[in-house]
Every structure is written in structure tokens, then in C-alpha cells.
Design brief:
Layout: E1 3-4, E2 11-12, E3 18-20, E4 23-25, H1 27-34, H2 46-62, E5 67-69, E6 77-80, E7 85-88, E8 95-96, E9 100-118, H3 124-128, E10 146-164, E11 167-172, H4 179-212, H5 218-228
Helix pairs in contact: 4-5
The structure holds zinc ion.
The site of zinc ion (ZN) has 8 residues, from helix 1.
Length: about 230
């Protein structure tokens, strides 16, 4: 009998359930809760993950694609530039541009593989047992020595780093053309926005002083404040 996910209520296909502290999760809800930890036991409560689920559902509702980044063999990045949201492939996990920390490429050295090639490759003993057969032709080849070659594999891992409600996560990706530049743009916009906000708060403080000094009225101050806070 199929079990239901404690967060979204969807039926969980056999053998794919993961555990939260006090319930079980489908693959989608696991991914929402996961952050960067690749594990099937999540040290989070169903209530906590339900909060993530709510945020994600709200983003899903308003998402309207305005741009798609893809090319042959790449991940597909679906973007909504108006709501500043995106998701990758068919994941249904919606990230805000503001949550993007950056794009990272990391070289990871894999195991060194040594291949030893024996010339001929057949032992004398075996050959000796089949004197009359066709493999008699390689008699003695094992004494001719062997050659070995080693190679080290280097893998490049590419991912988008995200700081969202669930913490820090690495979203692995086969980057489509233009992704790096797009992400740089998002992070720059975020920094600019943050510094603008700080400037505006300073500005409001100045107006508050003017209000306290009686230079401007409460009404004038309120209007200015609303304007600066984008209310
Ligand atoms: Zn679920």
C-alpha cells in the first residue's frame, strides 16, 4: 500500500520515502527540505518543512515564464523576470533571484586509474596445457614484460549556490549558455538594492530630525517615508 507524504499529501512511490523528524517525505518535499545535505533522513520537523512548502507553492502560483536559458545538452533554466523567480529542469523548486549567492565551478580530482597491459596476456601454464591449440602461438610472451599507464580523472562540478529558507544549498547544473552572466547580474542587482535600502534609511533619519525640529509636518514626513520605503 502506498504511503502519503506528511507535507504535501501526495502518494509516495514504493521505496522512495524519506524521513523527517516526525513524518515521511516524498522526493519533492525532500528536495525542498534538503539544503546541501544529500541524505534521506532530514533533521527537520514536518511543520518546518510545511513552511517551505507554503513558500514554494506561493511562488509556483505566481510564476510566469518570461525567459528560458537552454542549449543542447544543458539543464533548462526557467526564469520569471517580473517576479524574479526561477527553477531548473522539472524540479518545481522555485528560487528567488535574491537567494542566489553565486555560480561556482570546482575541479575535483578523481581516482588515479592504472592500467597494466601485459604483452600477450596469456600465461605459460595455460599455453602449456594447450600445446596443440591455436594459442600455442603466444608461448613465451609473458616473459616479454608489461607496460602500465596511469591517468587521473578531473571532474568539474558546476553549481549555483543558494541561501534560502532551508539554509545553504548547492544546486548542481549543466549550465546553459549565458547562465554565468545572468547570475552575475542577479547578484549585482541584489547588492545594489541592499545599498539603496541603507541609503534610504539614512534619508529617513534626516527627515525624522527635520520633523523633530518642527521644520516639516508629520504628514510631510509620512509621505516621504512611504516613498523611501517603497510602500
Ligand atoms: Zn511531499
Amino acid at each position: 500500500m502506498a504511503k502519503s507524504c506528511s507535507v504535501c499529501g501526495n502518494k509516495i512511490p514504493l521505496g522512495t520515502a524519506s524521513k523527517a523528524i516526525d513524518g515521511i517525505l516524498c522526493v519533492n518535499c525532500l528536495n525542498l527540505a534538503n539544503g546541501s545535505i544529500m541524505t534521506r533522513n532530514i533533521p527537520k520537523s514536518i511543520q518546518e518543512i510545511s513552511e517551505y512548502y507554503k513558500i514554494n507553492e506561493e511562488r509556483k502560483k505566481i510564476f510566469t515564464e518570461t525567459q528560458t536559458l537552454k542549449n543542447f545538452g544543458s539543464s533548462i533554466v526557467h526564469i520569471d523576470n517580473n517576479n524574479r523567480l526561477f527553477y531548473i529542469n522539472k524540479t518545481e523548486i522555485y528560487y528567488s533571484f535574491n537567494e542566489v549567492v553565486g555560480y561556482t565551478e570546482e575541479n575535483i580530482t578523481g581516482p588515479t586509474i592504472t592500467t597494466t597491459k601485459k604483452k600477450g596476456g596469456i600465461t605459460r601454464a595455460l599455453v602449456g596445457g594447450a600445446i596443440a591449440g591455436p594459442i600455442g602461438a603466444v608461448v613465451g610472451s609473458n616473459t616479454a614484460g608489461s607496460t602500465s599507464t596511469s591517468s587521473t580523472t578531473i571532474q568539474t562540478k558546476k553549481y549555483i549556490e543558494i541561501e534560502d529558507y532551508s539554509g545553504h544549498r548547492k544546486v548542481f547544473i549543466l549550465p546553459p549558455k549565458g547562465l554565468k552572466e545572468t547570475i552575475e547580474m542577479w547578484t549585482q542587482q541584489k547588492e545594489k538594492k541592499q545599498s539603496n535600502n541603507l541609503d534610504n534609511i539614512e534619508e529617513i533619519k534626516k527627515y525624522k530630525e527635520l520633523l523633530d525640529m518642527g521644520v516639516i509636518t508629520q504628514e510631510e514626513f509620512d509621505t516621504k517615508k512611504k516613498e523611501l520605503l517603497n510602500l
